[in-house]
Amino acid sequence: MSVSNPTLITFVIYIAAMVLIGFMAYRSTNNLSDYILGGRSLGSVVTALSAGASDMSGWLLMGLPGAIYMSGLSESWIAIGLIVGAYLNWLFVAGRLRVQTEHNGDALTLPDYFSSRFEDKSGLLRIISAVVILVFFTIYCASGIVAGARLFESTFGMSYETALWAGAAATIAYTFVGGFLAVSWTDTVQATLMIFALILTPIIVLLATGGIDTTFLAIEAKNPDNFNMLKNTSFIGIISLMGWGLGYFGQPHILARFMAADSVKSIAKARRISMTWMILCLGGTVAVGFFGIAYFSAHPEVAGPVTENHERVFIELAKLLFNPWIAGVLLSAILAAVMSTLSCQLLVCSSALTEDFYKTFLRKNASQVELVWVGRLMVLLVALIAIAMAANPENRVLGLVSYAWAGFGAAFGPVVLISVIWKGMTRNGALAGILVGAITVIVWKHFSLLGLYEIIPGFIFASLAIYVVSKLGAPTAGMVERFDAAEADYNLNK
Fold first, then answer.
1. pLDDT confidence bin for 473, thresholds 50/70/90
2. How far is CA 443 from CA 434, 454, 455, in A?
3. How many domains does the chain have?
4. Is residue 10 part of a domain?
5. Of the candidates 98, 124, 81, 57, which has an alpha carbon nearest to the alpha carbon of residue 416?
6. What pLDDT shows up at residue 89?
7. pLDDT tens per residue across span 431-454
8. CATH of the domain at 374
9. Local confidence band at 487 (pLDDT 50, 70, 90 cut-offs)
């Protein structure tokens, strides 16, 4: 289907609006803290919706609906695991990390926090954690660029190579200019657009297939096992899908939203908003993929693009069922999901390179203006590397995301979680946790051991390493004092 002018116009207006927000944020960006964390000024609504939007990426509207379309409700275990993991992350980590980063040198990045929290004078903890961020986030950024390229390719008939650059250009532009505030403000707009698309689309698909009873009969006729939550699953398979929830504790782009909240008091309200948004979005995503089975069974003549690539199920439904103007808005929701995640991933990589390498080891006395511009140049550098990695048109969004998600979840998740709840954790324990988590994910992924998602053994082994190695030493008096002060601050203000 060739793109209509209304769809194209909608896209152009949407992208222009995001870039305009970037220029508005530029005027509020005066130093590196503003560029990396927005001066810790996010209110509860922006904290909640930007955390949600930065989390979900193109996977929400492409990877997961595609998986449900292919396999039925058995793939929805991943959504259940994510909801549980996100809630526990908000409950146990969000508020504590906000105060711990403030009490530990007003840390702007995770490597900065680890270095201050554990008094790492050698810089080894900072370097290793920054390298982990760069390796796994570059893969994660590539997944976002693939999703954007797929959208532009299927909507505008571009070649995959041209679509790569078209999909990435707008995100790079507003992240480069406006930094964290631009990313957070645009994320709020994008989260609103995503939830609109994911509530409206399944309702219209349901109406187009003849209502709930007719739809369910069609899905059952296609394959009765589509309703079976245990279809083609095993205990290990279900645990692997649920294990995605463990990843939340270690995702730097989500944790950055907690660190940037204006106060601990904002966290509780943000948690309620974010979890409501997430449950509605994931429910809508599962419904799109599930009802899509019925629609394309009834209309095999238009099922070709989805048969070729099941991750296009949302795209094709939007194009087939909606007025071109509305379709443009709905397809912009995919772009919103891609841009919201890609932008904050680029920013976290830029932060690691600028704060944790350039400022710490090369230019300790660099001016704030210099650091902001170095940060902007690093956004471009990481984006170009990610575009190069995404150049293979055979890439699948969900596969790239799962590897990066596991890497962060295992390498940083146990370290972050345990560092905010246990004062007995030491620098060597943190170092062991990061190394064991990252290495376990890489080795487990390479050998595909037991068919178990690599985040689970990575998280378990990293946690054990932190505990055992920490018990071999003891935290310094300063570490204990700062931990107790932060915990008291948290309990007073939560």
1. very high
2. 14, 9, 11
3. 1
4. yes
5. 98
6. 95
7. 999 999 999 999 998 887 788 999
8. 1.20.1730.10
9. very high
Q: Quick one: pLDDT at residue 39?
A: 60
What was the pLDDT predicted at 232? Answer: 78
Average pLDDT, rounded, for the chain: 84
For 67, the token pair is: 């998986």
- Please state the φ and ψ torsions of residue 364, each to the nearest 5 degrees: -60, -30
Can you give the residue range of the structural domain that contains 356? 6-493
Is 1 within a domain? no
pTM: 0.85
